[in-house]
Amino acid sequence: MLDPHPERVAALLRAELPDTELRVRSEVASAVADADIICCATPATRPLFDTQMLPMAAHVNAIGAYRPTMRELPDDLLASSTIVIDELDAVLAESGEIIHVIDAGVITAKRLVELGSALTSPSAQRRPNRLQVGRPRHAGLGDRKICSSLPLCPDRRREPATTCGGR
């Protein structure tokens, strides 16, 4: 968890999630450096972190940036990742970082994988040592499905940690 007030957030979350390993940080680099899953839920207008800060096979959920003027993720992350979305038309109309990378020519809409295909098509399944981005329009169920159905990198031997980015 990333927060400018890590002690306060840690106390709050430990009371609500007593059996969950929590790592609360005040700096982005240390928050994402060894996270298996990174959840971004912010109204940011610029990327929250550099792609080089991430582990080689992280999964990033980006549920903020719900307006065309918002962005949470860097272009090179989207260019090098499998991008799983819930609904193509909605994401193309609302997701700031997706609109930005398509308009900038970094990716095309053909690179976006709808959730149904990601769950059923072997060619869309997660590959080891590759970054993956989940960009659902409706956070809860989409993020849960994306995270629970696509395996983590095989060299991870611990339970996935969740890191949330915020500014």
Could you write a compact summary of the structure shown?
By secondary structure, this protein is of the alpha/beta class.
Account of the 3D structure:
With 167 residues, this protein is an alpha/beta fold. The protein contains seven helices and six strands, in the order ααββαβααβαβαβ. It has helices at residues 6-16, 28-32, 75-80, 88-94, 96-103, 115-120, 139-149; strands at residues 37-40, 59-62, 82-85, 112-114, 132-135, 162-165. It starts with 5 loop residues before the first helix and ends with a strand. Residues 139-146 and 149-167 have low confidence and may be disordered.
Order of helices and strands: HHEEHEHHEHEHE
| Proportion in β-strands | 5-15%
Structural class from helices and strands? alpha/beta
N→C terminal distance: 12 Å
CATH hierarchy: architecture:
3-Layer(aba) Sandwich
Weakly predicted, low-confidence segments: 139-146, 149-167
What's the helix count?
Answer: 7
Count of individual domains: 1
Radius of gyration: 15 Å
CATH topology: Rossmann fold
What is the CATH homology-level superfamily?
A: NAD(P)-binding Rossmann-like Domain
Report helical residue fraction.
Answer: 25-40%
> For the record, what CATH class applies?
Alpha Beta
Please state the average pLDDT score.
77
| Shape verdict | globular
The counted number of beta strands is 6
Strand order of the largest sheet: 4-3-5-2-1-6
